[in-house]
Amino acid sequence: MPVTEKITVLSPANFTDQLNYSVPQPSAEEEARNFYVGLLLAIVSTIFIGSSFIFKKKGLLKLAENQGTRAGAGGYGYLKEWMWWAGMILMIVGEFANFAAYAFASATLVAPLGALSVILSEVLSSRFLNERLNLLGKVGSAMCVLGSTVVVLHSPKEQEVESIEDLLEKVRDPVFIVMAALLLSVAMFTIIFLSPRYGQKTVIVYIIICSTLGAFTVLGCKGVGVAIKETYRGRNEFTHWLTWVLLGVVVVCILFQLNYLNRALDTYNTAVVTPIYYVFFTSIVIFMSVILYKEWKNMTGVQIATEICGFLTIVGGIFLLQAFKNMNISLTNLPHAKKEPQPQKEKEPEEEAVLQILTDDQQISSS
Question: Membrane-spanning regions, if any (predicted)?
Fold first, then answer.
């Protein structure tokens, strides 16, 4: 009896389904393990990065003592300082840990943990750099951290990306393309026009550059991390062009970030730079992640109200950090603080003459 074989012809739609099915879906146990691995890597990253600020600042201060061209003025003499390189090595190790954390956990988890680096840098700067924040500066830093934490806790959780093809589909979204182009335009405008004019006057200029480019760094790290993880599982994602584009974005953005972050640290107080940088960076990363992964559709009214309150708390913290940073305010002198008397304005000769005429008129009228 003849044997007949059944041949199944896959249509394009069925072939796509089979291809997507070949991507292994993580189990609940694996997702939990990935969460804790990403959390641990993120904490280790913040420790290294927070410490690196102190070493790099020490190197920049040593360069200033030697009368070299400072980083804030566009100089690169700090490349000869071993203390700066020690900080650079710490930052590279921290960035690698941060890079790996994005491969295991979501950006909405990893990015906000940068608050640990803010706290660590403030503690170490007060110990080794003799930098002080006044009372309102400390309150402002706490408000920045708390406000960002509220934003993170009530932000929608991002959907996991399991392959470069999945990420490419999300990147092609018109809303994300428009926002990415707008963010890049802000960064380029700040670098070309605002940085030369106002970089030495306000720390916000350098922070905007580092934060906007940092958002692209995070998205690039997330994509490259997915490529590495999928390649390790047996599916080579480095044959996809998007992987190399994302890798190039990460390298270019990190180089720009390091340059302008050095300028910020050389020009301004470390205890002021780190919390403001954390606030801007975290807010932009969460905003771009929400747009890319579309979690805003699942937000309730309570979540939206809480997000707004968290953002206003951050704005208040930034205001306290910047508006009162040069004032000597502490718990010791706070009970004795009082409004300074306003100096009396000297009267002009014309004003004295008018007052004298009015006085004479009053005397004549009374007589």
Answer: 35-55, 76-93, 175-194, 203-228, 240-260, 272-292, 304-324
Q: What is the DSSP code string of 221-267?
A: HHHHHHHHHHHHTT---TTSHHHHHHHHHHHHHHHHHHHHHHHHHHH
What tokens appear for 106 in the block?
A: 């979501």
Evaluate whether 91 touches 48 at the Cβ level (below 8 Å): yes
Q: What is the C-alpha to C-alpha distance for residues 6 and 154, in angstroms, rounded to an integer?
A: 54
Is the distance from CB of 164 to CB of 223 less than 8 angstroms?
yes
- Nearest Cα to Cα of residue 204 among 218, 190, 193, 214: 190
234: left (phi over 0), alpha (psi -120 to 50) or beta: left
Query: Rounded to the nearest 10 degrees, what angle do helices 174-189 and 204-232 cross at?
Result: 140
Cα–Cα distance between 134 and 324 in angstroms, integer?
A: 8
Least confident stretch, 16-30, 56-70, 81-95: 16-30
Which structure tokens are listed for 231? 């390649």
Nearest 10 degrees: Cα torsion 186, 187, 191, 193: 0
112-132 pLDDT, tens digit each: 777 677 777 777 777 777 767
Q: Which pair of tokens denotes residue 77?
A: 């003499």
Q: What are phi and psi of 40, to 5 degrees?
A: -65, -45
CA distance 289 to 158: 7
Secondary structure of residue 331 in the 3-state scheme:
coil
Q: What is the largest CA-CA distance in the chain?
A: 144
Q: Indicate the pTM of the whole model.
A: 0.65
pLDDT in tens, 140-149: 778 877 877 7
Q: Which two tokens stand for residue 262?
A: 């050095």
Cβ–Cβ < 8 Å for 356, 300: no
